[in-house]
Amino acid sequence: MQESGRYDLNLLRVFVLVYETRSVTDAAEILAISQPSVSYALSKLRKLFSDPLFHRGPKGLEATPTASGLYPELSQSLRMIDSAVQGVSEFDPASTSHRFRLMMTDLGLMALFPYIVSAVLEAAPNVRLDVIPLDISQLHDRLRRNEIDAAIGIPAIPESDVLGEHLMDMPYVGVCARTHPRISDSPSMEEIAAEKHVVVSKALGHEHVVHRLAELGVRDSVTITLPSFAVVAQTLAVTDHISVVPKALADIIESHGSVRQFALPFNIAPGRVTLYTYRRDIPSPPVDWVREIIATSLTQYPYPKYVRGAALRGVQQAIAVD
Hints:
By secondary structure, this protein is an alpha/beta fold. It folds into three domains: 78 residues, Orthogonal Bundle (Arc Repressor Mutant, subunit A), CATH 1.10.10.10; 115 residues, 3-Layer(aba) Sandwich (D-Maltodextrin-Binding Protein, domain 2); 91 residues, 3-Layer(aba) Sandwich (D-Maltodextrin-Binding Protein, domain 2). It has 13 helices and twelve strands. The strands form three sheets. Strands 4-3-5-12-6 form a five-stranded mixed sheet. The chain has a five-stranded mixed sheet with strand order 9-8-10-7-11, sandwiched between helices. It has a two-stranded antiparallel ribbon with strand order 1-2. Helix 1 packs across helix 4. The radius of gyration is 24 Å and the shape is elongated.
């Protein structure tokens, strides 16, 4: 390593973000600088540490042993510096025009987004919100590459660099056409197994419903798989199929008059609705803010008994105040 009496913090920020994102392009976007500027910073870092630091691999830039050894201490140092500076220069929701990118299912849009967008725009009227369809197979990479700021979904994400906040539990119920000739309000397991079923794509994160049906011997009865929740009601209305869906969806589509709910004769674990963000060593005040306001906004959700985690704390505080 070359001796130097001064170290440019911006160079170290480039190093940390390239290490985390494995991409010059993504690091440049996060830092709001050009890609050539990131490349130039990397060349200076290579000279400073007398090491190539990164080389191209099948999944993006891969760190050298030297870079892997540097990362823990450099990222921790930057985190401490940013924590101190953040107290002086806070994120101001009222004046920001920041663009937030959220990943959600269409069910999340129907059931949760109205509460989220209302709270966000009340506190930050000039922000922009881009909502992207949830695809579980892409969630981790899109968070890591800074293509989205946050995601709301059901399945557990095992990667340790993803921060998950449990928002609420969402129970499941059965739904069918309002005029279904065989399904009562409380059908037996035999009656459920005798019917054909509609499910949604595993990309939406509700694959455990399909697994539970398979455990109950209903696998062969699943004959329609839909790409989204949006057309479940229309499909049930014109067929004799039935479906197991989150109660939030059932309440919405039942109100339209073409379908009705029924009690399930078996147990199924509720969906754990979770808010996901990327665990970066360099803090992002805008992402920290939107994560908190999303959790808080769901205290207004019409099913408070489902609420958990940060949202439950908000409900408890509201009850205490009242």
